[in-house]
TrEMBL record:
Catalytic activity as recorded in UniProt: 2 GTP = 3',3'-c-di-GMP + 2 diphosphate
Phosphoprotein as UniProt keyword: yes
GO molecular function: diguanylate cyclase activity
Family matches, as PROSITE patterns: GGDEF, RESPONSE_REGULATORY
Pfam family, one: Response_reg
Boundaries of every GGDEF domain copy: 267-398
One GO biological process term: phosphorelay signal transduction system
Protein name (database record): diguanylate cyclase
Residues carrying 4-aspartylphosphate: 2
Keyword terms: Phosphoprotein
Enzyme Commission number: 2.7.7.65
Length: 398
């Protein structure tokens, strides 16, 4: 969106979108010839996700769009999973601009003179700032605290800031926390590398500290907005009590909403049915307490190693359904094979924690067609699961 437009300027349009619950979470990039710091700061104050000057750097724009769509996809999945359909107004009752962020915590990984300016200005906004001058301690600090944003200075002494960001992203508990990278002067290669590994935003120095502050606040608001949606609308009734993944009841709700998207050509989706090999024998040998423990552990491995935009449910006994989006069957097979390898390499303990148990999984994969019922999609995947079981187990068939 440009700033200079007839009838309503870009600031007014951005604010109007952010104040409308049904569309308040749609990403907005301001693209303009105006370059004053006031225009840039106001863009973020009114709710823009990014600000780019003309002439447009299309490589950078493409990466920013990819990053912002990833964020929007997380919200789309919450809406889809909530099964709300026409009740969208009720779900998105708190516009993005109105999200409360007082007492949120930010980690600042930095050892430069910028620390004091950032700390003071964020503290005035009632945001708690922890400072980490030793990058080796950053991941552990993140794991021990509930941060809403991590700011990393790429010029921190004796450290590769990208490595810190990658380590944070590789932690299951931290993969959804936004990262803002401070980059010294404009370096397109460094910026592109950061966006490719999944940072959420950046601030280029030397620059007005006000821009960094409004960008930080915007990231914190987005984080809380998504967390609020998750905690409020993903009800316990939809969760399998033992494994804490979705249950069969919710799979049916989710699938109906998914089919509508497929019919509108909004998604391409793959269904995978996963079965723990020899689970009855495992239960008979080790007991149901150990069996339940293994079910919980395998569910956790599956859940934590797929994207947040994908879907997992336990459909009974030792069977799980995973639905993967925007992948071919071959790509989906690769994802499930990695999960299978992860499970094979895990040493599960029995209830006494003295002995270890080895487990494998078999899986069948199939396309989901726009005219499918849930039973039809599961049946196709189940036929491939049967082939996997018949061919010696511990395998994935498409």
């Amino acid at each position: 969106m440009d700033i200079m437009m007839p009838i309503m300027d870009g600031f007014g349009a951005t604010k109007a979108i952010r104040k409308t619950p049904e569309i308040s979470y749609i990403p907005i990039i301001i693209v303009t010839a105006l370059s004053s710091i006031e225009d840039k700061v106001n863009s973020f104050v009114y709710g823009a996700d990014d600000y780019m000057n003309k002439p447009i750097n299309y490589s950078l724009l493409k990466l920013r769009i990819k990053s912002l769509i990833r964020m929007k996809s997380s919200i789309d999945e919450i809406i889809l999973r909530a099964g709300i359909g026409e009740n969208l107004q009720n779900l998105l009752c708190a516009p993005l601009l109105d999200v409360e962020i007082a007492n949120s915590k930010i980690l600042l990984v930095d050892d430069s003179e910028l620390i004091h300016s950032i700390y003071d200005k964020l503290e005035r906004k009632n945001i708690i700032v922890d400072i980490c001058k030793n990058p080796d301690q950053a991941v552990q600090k993140c794991l021990k605290n509930n941060y809403s944003l991590i700011i990393i200075n790429s010029e921190i002494v004796d450290c590769n800031a990208i490595d810190i960001a990658v380590k944070i992203r590789n932690q299951v508990k931290l993969k959804h926390i936004p990262i803002l990278m401070i980059i010294d002067e404009y370096d397109e290669d460094t910026l592109i590398k950061n966006l490719e590994i999944g940072i959420n935003d950046y601030f280029i120095t030397p620059g007005e500290i006000r821009e960094l502050i409004v960008k930080s606040i915007a990231q914190v608001k987005k984080f809380h907005y998504i967390q609020n949606l998750k905690s409020t609308y993903l009800k316990d009734a939809n969760i399998d009590e033992l494994t804490q993944v979705y249950n069969r009841r919710y799979l049916e709700i989710y699938f109906k909403s998914l089919i509508k998207q497929l019919q509108n050509n909004e998604k391409i989706s793959i269904i995978c049915i996963i079965d723990i090999d020899n689970f009855k024998q495992l239960n008979d040998t080790w007991g149901h307490i150990t069996g339940d423990k293994i079910l919980k552990s395998i569910a956790s491995i599956l859940k934590n190693n797929i994207r947040s935009s994908d879907f997992i449910a336990r459909i009974g006994g030792e069977e799980f359904i995973i639905i993967l989006h925007h992948l071919t069957k071959l790509e989906a097979k690769s994802v499930i094979e990695k999960l299978s390898k992860n499970i094979l390499e895990t040493k599960f303990s029995d209830y006494s924690k003295i002995k270890t148990v080895k487990c494998t999984i078999s899986a069948g994969i199939a396309d989901i067609n726009p005219e499918d019922t849930l039973a039809e999609a599961i049946n196709r995947a189940d036929k491939n699961l049967y082939k996997a079981k018949s061919s010696g187990k511990n395998t994935v068939i498409i």
